[in-house]
Predict the structure.
Amino acid sequence: MKHAKRRILVAAALAGGLFVGSTAPTQAAGEQVYIITAVETKGESAVAIPDTADGAQFAIDQINKAGGVTIKGKKTKIKYERIPVGSTAALAETAARQIVDKRPTAVYGFISTAHNPGAAPVMKAAGIPTIFANTGATLAIGAASSVGAPNLFRIRPTQSALAAEQFNFMVNQYKKDTGKDLTKIGMICVQGAFGKAGCDVYGFLANQKKITIVRREENSVTATDLSSQVTAICNSGAEAIMSVNFPNPAAAFMNEMVNRGCKLPIVEGASGDIAVMSGAFTPPSGFKLYAAVDCHPAAAAKGTAAKKFADAFTKKYGYPAGYSAGEAYDGMYLLKAAIETAQSTKSADIIKAMKRQKYKGVCYDKYSPVAAATGVTSNILVNKSSMVSYNGKTPTVVSTVVLPK
Amino acid sequence: MGFFIENLINALSYGAAITLAAFSFMVPLKATNIVSFAQGDFISLSAFIGAWLITDKGWNWSIAYGATLVIMFGAGVVFERLTHGSLRGRPVDEVIIATLGVAFIIRGFISRWRGANPQSLESPLRGKFFTFAGAAIPYQRLVIIGVTIVVTLVLYYVFQRTAFGLQLRALATDPEVARLHGVRTTRLAIIAFGISSFLCGLTGLLVGSLTSFDIGLGFAIMLGGFCAAIIGGWGSIAGAFVGGLVLALIERLFGAYYFTHFREMLPLVFLFLFIAVRQRGIFRGAESYGRL
């Protein structure tokens, strides 16, 4: 009987200990910094690339190695987790619900505009500070069909803003290169909302500037043979090509141009840069490719933070740091800066602090929400985009623009 | 004139590629009555292996191409053992579903191994072209056409004139009778799958080295090959050749002048119309090799 009592007491003490142990992190959760990235990495789907996941992990490793985030004089290491998100709104919604259940301090990711309709409402309702790494216009508060909210930030410029910059760049660059005004263009647009939106901007601006679109061609997302499109555009009398495409069709298109000696200058978005940096397309001498990218750490000047990041990243992961790696890296430091500015891990404090933090990133020297008088874009982070040209595989930044303007 | 010639060459080379893909369906079909849905991913796999050997391992392109074709033949043998071989006696439908399973495994493997970024496969003819009547004609496209003509003639000869080809056809027509007549059915099936995979390898290397590619390379070619085989007459070598040619001319030549924004849909529209009129394809005599 005596032994039985003792056993009960020991068991109760152990159970109590377990209970205290299991609740301890919850009690301390107010001070724990827990960041989740909502991104896929290589191998998790047919379209997944590792850049964003690696860029975020790289930053987290650095931050934790340096002691972590400083809150009220105490250094706290970041608890970090990555939740893979599929390519559809429904999958993004599932991932968002999974993330919300884990009650993180902040979230970064959702790299596709297709994620927004599924993920944004869930993250909005949860009130967790979330940086969306896509170009969706609907993330802006007050935009048409907006899914935006004060706790949802967008780190990338909209595709329409970028397309307008690309168009204006080509008009100016053509004049600079040839001394003539650009009068005729050909367009290659990937099928779907992405291609249509970009090419519609080109079309609108061409109409404004009295530039004739002599040929508008389309290709599917999975196209690998674009010989018909190249033949049509290169024989159309176009003086330059405006492209909105995905990385592989963009690379296939430009390789096909080279295969038949078509040397028209071409403007592309980030896909053009991915095509070159992945080695799928190497511009030969005299081939004028201009790619618009949010940032290009690998093309940064020597000695800059961006260049140091790019070199260290390549050394660690074995491939060049693209814009999405740089932005994810910045995203982690941006959240660290906001938490340290807030001196709190509470969502409301971090959201306010996002507008006051002074982080200087590898992609841009200061990320700060646009303080538009109307407040329409108050949750949109200022970013800088670069137009990049190539000498072989070597990128050179030829112009930059701060977006939104 | 230049525009017409360029589009004609585009069409012929595209037709050649899908004809090769159609042949890769045809060989195991003749041996086993099995339609393999893994062919598209075998095409992609060969391009990825070639790119890996050249870019990552630094092999000379000719050695890398040869090694890739050998690897692909071996992959075909393993494929037969995993599907047709291990499911012997099971309904044909189950084996076909198994080939689809293998396709997903290959896709997952490539995705894990090489990722989603576009890839480049070196070719000595990349970027080389000549001009004729105002048309820029890439040499690589002529090579694709030439290789396909040679492969067609070889396959035609093998199936019509050699003991191996006749045994394959006998096997497809009636496996039991073929076995009773001493045909070594297992060995034939293994070789047929090996050849089929070899043809996928050839297609992947020829098309992958034209420009750039990603994991979706083989799928579109497989679809084209499938349509070509249906139009030609399921199981007919000559039919696949003609079917591939017809589809390519409709999409790439007719589509260059008319319905340009619906170019990719034109072959499918034609396919529906064609099979409504002539269900068993152009070469009707071939249907005995493909009872599914």
